Known about the structure:
This protein is an alpha/beta fold. It contains five helices and ten strands; from the N terminus they run ββααβαββαβαββββ. The chain has helices at 23-29, 37-43, 51-60, 95-105, 116-124, and strands at 2-10, 14-16, 46-50, 70-73, 88-91, 109-112, 130-136, 144-145, 156-163, 169-175.
Amino acid sequence: xxxxxxxxxxxxxxxxxxxxxxxxxxxxxxxxxxxxxxxxxxxxxxxxxxxxxxxxxxxxxxxxxxxxxxxxxxxxxxxxxxxxxxxxxxxxxxxxxxxxxxxxxxxxxxxxxxxxxxxxxxxxxxxxxxxxxxxxxxxxxxxxxxxxxxxxxxxxxxxxxxxxxxxxxxxxxxxx
Length: 176
C-alpha cells in the first residue's frame, strides 16, 4: 500500500497555530484552487487521519460526506460514541498493524491527512512513501509543529515543485 501524507504547513513548520487555530490556512481555500486534492482523493482507496484532525473537520463541517472510507487513529475510540460513523472507523494500536488492516480492506493508495503525532509515528516506523506539502507564506511562531524527532534522520527526495498564484508552494517528496 502506497501511503501519501498531504498537508498545508506554515513557512516555519507549523500545521496549526496556537490552540489548534487553522484560520491562517483556510484563507487559501477561498482562492477556488483545490491544490490537487480532488485528483489525490480519486487515486486513493482510503484515508487515515489523527483524532485531532478528525475533531477539527467534524467541528468545521459536521455534515461533511466522506468520499473515502476514513480511519481515525485514536487511543480514545469511546470518545466518539454517538458520532455518525458512516464511512468512518476508529482504530488504534501499533501503526504497522493499522496500516496492514487498512491495506487488506482497501488495497491501493492511502491518503494520510494528519496530524503531527500520526505523521511522526508513521515516519518513525518507516510507513510513509510520499509527502506532499503546501508551504504557505505565513510565519506563525507557535502552534503544532509538523516535525518531531522522527523526521530528523529521514532522507526525503524532492520529486517536484509547483508555485500557485495564492503564494503557496507545493513540494512533493519521496520518503527514503
